[in-house]
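Input chain follows. Return structure tokens only.
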Amino acid sequence: MCQGGVAAEEVENRFGGRFQEDYSAALGRLDRFEDDGLVDLSSAGDLRVTSLGWIFLRNIAMAFDAYLEEDRGRNARVFSQTH
């Protein structure tokens, strides 16, 4: 969040795996943000938040929250949320 983006190659080099495959669900959730001009997604899987997107950074980052959908499905209490 502090850097305003993710470089797929850097993530792969640091943690292994294949970024676009490993995070395909999260990247799919970013389509609506891209359509609204809040993020730029490259064909390599890089993600960059636009200047307008900074206002919605927390919402954008929620696409990568592995527990958020699970908690919502169980009707668990979510302590920090935005809509």
